[in-house]
Amino acid sequence: MSDLQPVIGLEIHLQLKTKTKMFCACASGEQEASANSLICPVCTSQPGALPVINEKAVELGAKAALAINCNIEPYSIFARKNYFYPDLPKSYQISQFEKPLAQNGHIKIETPDGEKKIGIERAHLEEDAGKSLHAIGSKDLDYTLIDLNRAGIPLLEIVSAPDMNSPEEAYTYLAELKKTIQWLGVSNCDMEKGELRCDVNISLKPKEATELGKKVEIKNLNSFKAVKDSIFYEIARQTDIIKSGKIVLSDTRLWDDKEEETYSMRSKETANDYRYFPDPDLVSLKFSDEYASKIKNSLGELPQQKKTRFIEQYALNNYDANLLTANKNLSSYFEDCVKLGGEPKISANLIATELMGRLNADKLEIKDCPITPQYIAELAQLLKSGKISNTISKQVMDKIWEKPSSPKELIETSGMSQVSDENQIREWAKEALSKNPKAIEDFKNGNEKAIGPIMGMIMKKSKGKANPKITNSIIKALIQRLGDKSKS
Amino acid sequence: MKAILIAQKVKSGEIKATDVTKEYLRKISAKDEKINAFLEVFADSALKKAEEIDLKVAQGRPVGKLAGVPVAIKDNMLYKNHKMSCASKILENYISPYSATAVEKLLNEDAVIIGRTNMDEFAMGSSTENSAFKNTKNPLNEDYVPGGSSGGSAAAVAANMALISLGSDTGGSIRQPAAFCGVYGLKPTYGSVSRYGLAAFASSLDQIGCFTNNPEDLELAFSVISGHDKKDSTSLDAPQERKEFNIKTVKIGIPKEHFMDKIDAEIKKEFLSTVEKLKKLGADIIDISLPNTAYALATYYIIASSEASSNLGRYDGMRYGRTSKRADSLISSYKLSRGEGFGPEVKRRIMLGTYSLSAGYYDAYYIKAQKMRTLIKEDFKKAFKKADIILTPTTPTTAFKFQEKLKDPISMYLSDIFTIPASLAGVCAVSAPSKNKTENGLSIGMQFISNHFNEPTLFSVIGMLNNE
Questions:
Q1: Chain B residues in contact with A53 (beta carbon < 8 A)
Q2: Which residues on chain A place their C-beta less than 8 Å from a C-beta of chain B?
Q3: Domain of residue B99, residue span
Q4: Which of A16, A277, A400, B423 is 20 to 30 A from B70 via CA?
Q5: Which residue in the set B313, B319, B354 is minimally distant from A92, CB to CB?
Q6: How open is the CA angle B196-B200-B204, to the nearest 5 degrees?
Q7: Is residue B204 in some structural domain?
Q8: Do A280 and B307 touch (CB under 8 A)?
């Protein structure tokens, strides 16, 4: 049997960061509000209540769609998706069906084989349903409570093309999308809070086949890890079925986080007929080219564009460029350092290693960082000019992390600057070499690394202040001379 | 007395709103036991409102255009803290948590809302016999139906139990009962009156309108309830000003295809005499053509039922309304609550609409009906290039007797055959009553249809005919 290739598409729902709901004036997205406190006749579907489109939600949706390279359709309409469920007050969800807000976009992701374009089929606006709180477990608790605070919160659904072929690609696509959306401030994208929800569509096909296999949908994915793990699981499950000569059936499956497996929720054979039709209560959305370009211009530089620029303009490596464009605040922090005179690569390195490590350890975000870009820029300058070594730089970081102050002043007042005095270094080196005859032997026999322990001793002795470059050449020269002496 | 005069007298302090209200409450208790126009009389809140108005007058504060005018509302409009049932068991004990925009506007102009009127359940029907609660009698002859679905509102005005009443018209539900009961009934242009707070039947067709005993009050009532509402995205501002009007420049179009062979002899006679009167007044009578209106009834029942099947989904017994006590699971709760709560006509239309929207049938029914609706709109557009007003009888027959058509839905549906085309086109139309009654004491209605937002022309023409 030929190799099987997974074909994966993702359907993503984002809660848009609006003040009010999609079709009424109720506050949107207040996680802490008590149940059913953010409701009105419209979102509880009282008789006679009518929806009115939230323009801000449309704007945020258009922003996100343009950022993922979609075309905003000049004409789009809202449709009703009809089905009965207790947390769906109108018995229909207002969504978009035949005429979505935007279509035909893509996101570029990095794979081991290079850059890959993942297509976006469509992005459309809709409203969220309420929450069902099932109290199942004992006979006395056999009921379900409904909280309609969430009902009517604006959602953007983004449907990818079936362009991903591995769990890693799906993961990277999701991460890239999340980064872009958060960057724009369109959604908070917290998966645990349900602000970002992801359903996976997956099928397997022989590698050379063009026709896709039967699609299985995976739901109930509450984290990035769950997305990746469930795809791994599903690939293995479907491979087993196919290898044993059976056929994979179309299915909707739920991911069980504890058992780490998917299980069947319902067969698509009994799928709902949603009876979509245009919502007669709402007017169509019409967009001029001017509107689309106005929104497009408001996007600013997006993370992928910024990353490319960082590589080109500052000669950063891919890793650092990626890291520094993880979010807007971080990338501006970096560019502030550069503007204040910090050498780009050194500044990037300081942020990536020294600053991020400390921020993560203290669970701080870059916007709460106690050290200003000015200080990082100073530190970068000190490193560049050779006034301090990396070791000193770490010590300075420790100090200014505890008590923010200017590294320049600190170096000047505390005598922490680097020692470049060759006589002093030679003394230290002689002492170290005398305690390490083996290292000398090893070095002479061609082991360049043997110099390491010598270096370490000198650094310890000098409290890290010895200029590494000079120290290195002095050690080498001394060993050389010792060799010459023993020959003579 | 005219509403317009009552309001003037209340305003000037000549009469008291409380006295007017009490008088109308007395009229209702004297007559309505027989007529059954009202499902509920709001005596307490009506008197309270009347007292407020009198106080304002006494203090010299301004009062509204409808000061002290007793107004009845159809039972599908929300009036805060009052019951609203859509004449259905499923909403039997529903209390409105807010007021419809049209109701707010009435109250802002100091109308006294005197009660809610009977109707066909969820406005589906043409005789008010589909009410889950009672039959309303035609005040002109109690053996006959008042028409529907706004039968209670038409009867309330016809029996002078209210001076103005609000109804809703989806395919003729104001005009047909106005014709049957011998009152004026206006179905305004779609979008000119906010639908916010009108329990939806078919959203793209529903329109709130009014009943009165004379053209002036009709115009007054319309001026109060119309106008753009930001809570209804399909609403628009209507022109309120009457344009300069000269009947001699008015062209009255008579559709050549659609009625002469389908109507009662006495209706034909009344129609021809109306044409004669208009001619005498100097109007230009011309032939127009509405070729696609032959398909209007079928088109209407697909579209209206499709929308209704979705609109009525919210009556599921989960948040309000009837919840079946016999249910033992989620699915059975839906089935039993809705099964027990809805009457047969409502169920028939939900099934028809659900079917029309189903996968595999959507294109053949819903989409085809939408295409036909577009053609019908085009017919009207063309006709209004030639004519200012289109004249037809409102109904093919005068009021029928109870039970006469209840067992035969199609013959019931046919009583709206002349009113449905204007609904599909979204244009405005008014039914004006004949001055002469038939042998059975019944009235005949003439329908005047005009283009979008051309209500002022309608008021001018019916006003002029009334003064003849």
A1: 233
A2: 41, 44-53, 80, 82, 84, 86, 89-92, 146, 273, 275-277, 279-283
A3: 3-225
A4: B423
A5: B313
A6: 90
A7: yes
A8: yes
DSSP B231: T
The contacts of residue A317 (CB under 8 Å, 6+ apart) are A311
The answer for residues whose C-beta is within 8 angstroms of residue A43's C-beta and 6 or more apart is A21, A23, A24, A26, A89, A148, A151, A152
pLDDT digits 0-9 by tens, B345-380: 999 999 999 999 999 999 999 999 999 999 999 999
CB atoms within 10 A of CB B420: 24
**Strands B389-393, B445-450: pairing kind:** antiparallel
- Domains of chain A (ranges plus CATH)? 4-291 (no CATH), 301-414 (no CATH), 422-487 (1.10.10.410)
Using the beta-carbon criterion (under 8 Å), do B231 and A50 form an inter-chain contact? yes
Phi-psi region of B320 (alpha: psi -120 to 50; beta: other; left: phi over 0): beta
Cα A107 to chain centroid, rounded: 14
Residue B74 annotated as catalytic: yes
Where do runs of H (alpha helix) occur along A270-406?
A: 289-298, 303-314, 318-324, 328-339, 344-349, 356-361, 373-384, 390-402
Pairing of strands B70-74, B112-117: parallel
Query: Is residue B332 among the annotated active site residues?
Result: no
d(CA A181, CA A164): 20
Taking only the tens place, the pLDDT of each residue in A385-432 is: 878 888 888 888 988 998 888 998 888 777 677 777 788 888 888 888
Q: Which of B316, B336, B370 is the best residue to mutate to test the A interface, defined by the most A CB atoms within 10 Å of its own CB?
A: B316
CATH assignment at residue B182: 3.90.1300.10
Asked if residue B450 is part of any domain, the answer here is: no
The catalytic position among B74, B105, B137, B405 is B74
Please report the ipTM that was assigned to this predicted complex.
0.96
| A290-to-A103, A283, A286, A360, B434 alpha-carbon distances in Å | 18, 20, 11, 43, 56
Our measurement of the distance from residue A66's CA atom to the centroid of its chain's CA atoms, rounded to an integer in Å, reads 19
pLDDT for the residue A1 = 47
| DSSP for residue B365 | I
Q: Across residues A366-379, what is the average pLDDT?
A: 92
Distances (CA, A) of A161 to A11, A100, A243: 9, 15, 26
Contact criterion met (CB < 8 Å) for B91 and A47: yes
Alpha-carbon distance values, B15 to A367, B8, B11, B126 (Å): 71, 9, 8, 38
Q: How confident is the model at residue A137 (pLDDT cuts 50, 70, 90)?
A: low
DSSP code of A355? Answer: I
B282, with CB counted inside 10 A (0-12, 13-18, 19+), is exposed
Q: How many domains in chain B?
A: 1
Q: Is the pLDDT of residue B55 over 80?
A: yes
Q: How far apart are CA A417 and CA A387, in angstroms?
A: 6
CA angle A91, A93, A99 (to 5 degrees): 140
Position B36 in a domain: yes
| B34 domain residue, yes or no | yes
Asked whether the bond before A45 is cis by omega within 30 degrees of 0, the reply is no
Report the largest interatomic distance among the alpha carbons of chain B, rounded to a whole angstrom.
70
Q: Do A47 and B86 touch (CB under 8 A)?
A: yes
| Range A359-370 burial, b when 16+ CB lie within 10 A, else e | beeeeeebeebe
In chain A, what residues touch B366 (CB-CB under 8 Å)?
A: 277
Facing residue for B198 by CB, picked from A48, A84, A279: A48
Can you tell me the distance from the alpha carbon of B387 to that of B288, in angstroms, rounded to the nearest whole number? 8
Segment A25-39, tens digit of pLDDT = 999 977 789 999 999
Q: Are the C-beta atoms of B411 and B429 separated by less than 8 Å?
A: no
Most B CBs within 10 Å: which of A275, A283, A284, as the mutation test of the B interface? A275
